[in-house]
Amino acid sequence: MQNRVQILGVPFSTLTFEETLHKLEQDLRGTTPRHIITANPEIVMLAREDAAFMALLQDVELITPDGIGAVWASKYYGHALHDRVTGVELSTALIEHCAENGHGVFLLGASPQSNALAVQNLRHRYPNLRIDGRDGYFKETDLPEIKAAVRGFQPSLLLVGLGVPRQELFISKHKSELNVPVSIGVGGCIDIFAGVVKRAPKLWQNLKLEWMYRLLSQPSRWRRQLVLPKFVITVLTDKNRKK
Ligand code: UDP
C-alpha cells in the first residue's frame, strides 16, 4: 500500500505532520467514519502477541508514529520517517481547525474531573468551539447511554482516551454506529488538555527524550517502558528488516 512503512507488521503512515493534518481536515467533512491510531512501540509489541489486535491495526485508516521508537525503527524498513506525528499535537491542531470551521468535538475518556477540566479549558481557549465530553470510567451497562450522548452531539472529531488497547477496541467496535467522521485514540491527552499531566518541556522534546521525562515524572509507568528495549531488540533481530 502507498504511504505506508511496515514496522514489525504494523503499517505506519509515512505522511508528514502537515500532510496528515491536511488529510484529516478533509476527512472531518466526510461521511465515512475513519479510525486513526497514534502508535508507539507499546502498541506494536501488543499487536505481536495478539492476532486480533494486529488485524485491527491492519484495518484502520491511518497509524501515525507517536514516538521516537517508530521513527527510529522505520529506517530499517525501507522508508525513514522524518518525525513523529503525536496524538497531542495532532489533536490540538484538529481541535483548532474544528473551532475555526464549526465542527463539533467530543472528548471521551479520563476521570470525570479531568474530562470536565479539559472541556472547560478548551472552551476557554476556543470560545467558538462546540465541545462536550464524558469520562472514561464507565461500565458496559452505561454503553448505550454513552453512545446516545455521542450520536446526539454529532461531533466531527471524537477523541477517545481510555488507554491502549481499550480505546482502539472501542472505536473499532462502535465507529459505524457512532458515525463520527474522524475518531482518534489519544491515550492520556485529555489529562494534558486538563492541565493535570504536563508535557515534557520543549528542550526534552527536541532532544527526543519525552519518553524519559514521562518516566521520571510518572514513575508508575516504568514497568510499561520495559517494552522499549524489547522493541529495539525485536527490530534489530527481525529477519525482515533491511540492513
Ligand atoms: N482511562 C479511562 N478509563 C479507564 C482507564 C483509563 O478513561 O478505564 C484514562 C486515564 O484516566 C488516562 C487515559 O485513559 O486519561 C490513559 O492514559 P495513559 O497515560 O495510560 O495513556 P497513553 O498515552 O500512555 O496511552
TrEMBL record:
<dbReference type="InterPro" id="IPR034714">
    <property type="entry name" value="TagA_TarA"/>
</dbReference>
<keyword id="KW-0328">Glycosyltransferase</keyword>
<dbReference type="Pfam" id="PF03808">
    <property type="entry name" value="Glyco_tran_WecG"/>
</dbReference>
<keyword id="KW-0777">Teichoic acid biosynthesis</keyword>
<keyword id="KW-0808">Transferase</keyword>
<comment type="pathway">
    <text>Cell wall biogenesis; teichoic acid biosynthesis.</text>
</comment>
<keyword id="KW-0961">Cell wall biogenesis/degradation</keyword>
<comment type="function">
    <text>Catalyzes the conversion of GlcNAc-PP-undecaprenol into ManNAc-GlcNAc-PP-undecaprenol, the first committed lipid intermediate in the de novo synthesis of teichoic acid.</text>
</comment>
<protein>
    <recommendedName>
        <fullName>N-acetylglucosaminyldiphosphoundecaprenol N-acetyl-beta-D-mannosaminyltransferase</fullName>
        <ecNumber>2.4.1.187</ecNumber>
    </recommendedName>
</protein>
<dbReference type="InterPro" id="IPR004629">
    <property type="entry name" value="WecG_TagA_CpsF"/>
</dbReference>
<comment type="similarity">
    <text>Belongs to the glycosyltransferase 26 family. TagA/TarA subfamily.</text>
</comment>
